[in-house]
Amino acid sequence: YDAGLTLRRVNSKGYLSIQGRRYYLSEAMIGKYVELRFRPDNLVDLCYGPFRIASIDLSERLFRSRKISRVPPLNL
Q: What pTM, to 2 d.p., does this model score?
C-alpha cells in the first residue's frame, strides 16, 4: 500500500474496527491490512490490493455488499 492511505489490520478473530465499531470480515484475513476508501454517500469500501472485498454503510452500521470486484487504483 502507498503512504497516506487509511489502513486497518484485521485482528486475530477476523474483525476490523471503523469509527469505534467492529465488523467481522473473515478469519482468512487475520493479520492482513485492508484499505478503507471513504465515499461521499457515507459508505466505506474495504479494499485488499486491487479488489473491493466489501462495502459498509457507516450511518446504518452494516455491510451493504460483500461482492468482490476489481477497483482502479487511487491517484494520490
A: 0.89
